[in-house]
Design brief:
With 242 residues, this protein is α+β, with helices and mostly antiparallel strands. The chain has two domains: 72 residues; 150 residues, 2-Layer Sandwich (60s Ribosomal Protein L30, Chain: A), CATH 3.30.1330. 50% of the residues lie in helices and 17% in strands. It contains six helices and seven strands, in the order αββαββααβαβαβ. The strands form two sheets. Strands 3-4-7-5-6 form a five-stranded mixed sheet. It has a two-stranded antiparallel sheet with strand order 1-2. Helix 2 runs antiparallel to helix 4. The chain is elongated. The protein starts with a helix and ends with a strand. 22% of the residues are buried.
Amino acid sequence: MRRHEEEHEEGEGGSERWLLTYSDMITLLLALFIILYSMSSIEAKKFAKIAESFGPAFNNGSIESSSNGTGTGTGTGTGTGFNGNVDDPLNEVYDILTEYVDQNNLQDQISLSNSDSSVQIRITNMLMFAPDSPLMLESSKPIMEEISGALIKVYDFVDHITISGNTANVGEQNMQTEEFSWYLSLNRANTVRKSLVEYGLPQDKLSLEGNSHYNPIASNNTENGRSKNRRAEITVYKSPSK
């Protein structure tokens, strides 16, 4: 009887040993997870320190990091992105392009006007296009790149941008010359649009106008006046909330 009880007790003890082994394994796994988590936290802090040391060298800013891995940047670069804050987009565009025009002595080819609601960039056809053609001159492409870069900087802060083409009235209009004038003005506007887009300007806020010779800014009775009427215009409208 005693032998039977001892064997029974030994059987129960043996059946409970796996619980001890399982408990030890869980404890070891928990310790392993704690170690891994601590290592990851340390590495995150090291990464934040490295990023913070490089931050001023790249963008004159700083990077702040919290223990949960989130951070906020304080850089205020403008460049060609849409990240900066623009107090007045119209003044921004006007100032950038005015400086460009002055530095390159383009006052006779490009004129700028600024109002409370819009900025208008007026470019003579002589600078932009071959005679009676919507094809853009190679020499005008750097100008388009500069204009596109200025517009990109304020794109998020403007309502829309209208690109219009205009021709001169040379007299003796008939159906053929009228049709050609409409075609030329609209296609020149579209050429300007394509050039701006090629240099990175988004086009969801762009619209086109072809005015033919029906929007003159000078008399068509003189060659000088007709030269002024042959032009492309880019008008930037400020968002109502700005």
